[in-house]
């Protein structure tokens, strides 16, 4: 927030050099070390849930790469079971562009 405020003031030609030195900066946060789940971890999650909806969601997300909101906004009409395609509607995507993806098993 401080950085945004500084940029805003500089944009409006306000000298921030003196004030900037007086502001106590927060300490640097620890870098997150997130990693994708491994297959056995996903399988354990799926087996641990009792909700059929959650089970489907936990299978769908890693297999398709859908974002959570995209998956939650899917309608039956968005899925072509015969051709094996899911259509993600533009209004549900982050970049507002529709896309299609294959859901058929590669075997």
Q: Give the proportion of residues in helices.
A: 40-55%
Mean of pLDDT: 86
Low-confidence stretches: none
Helix count equals 5
Outline type: elongated
Question: How far apart, in Å, are the first and last alpha carbons?
Answer: 50 Å
Query: Can you write the helix and strand succession as a string?
Result: HHHHHEEE
Which characteristics define this entry?
single chain; 107 residues; mainly alpha; 3-stranded antiparallel β-sheet; 5 helices; elongated
Describe the protein.
The chain has 107 residues and is mainly α. It has helices spanning 2-11, 17-22, 39-48, 52-64, 68-72, and strands at residues 79-80, 85-88, 99-102. It has a three-stranded antiparallel β-sheet, with no helix packed on it. The longest helix has 13 residues, at 52-64.
Give a quick rundown of the structure.
With 107 residues, this protein is mostly helical. It is built from five helices and three strands.
């Amino acid at each position: 927030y401080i950085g945004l405020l500084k940029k805003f003031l500089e944009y409006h030609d306000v000298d921030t050099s003196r004030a900037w030195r007086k502001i106590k900066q927060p300490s640097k946060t620890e870098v997150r070390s997130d990693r994708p789940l491994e297959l056995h971890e996903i399988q354990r999650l799926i087996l641990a849930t009792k909700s059929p909806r959650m089970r489907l969601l936990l299978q769908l997300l890693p297999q398709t790469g859908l974002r959570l909101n995209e998956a939650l906004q899917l309608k039956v009409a968005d899925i072509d079971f015969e051709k094996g395609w899911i259509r993600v509607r533009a209004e549900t995507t982050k970049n507002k562009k529709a896309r299609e993806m294959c859901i058929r098993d590669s075997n």
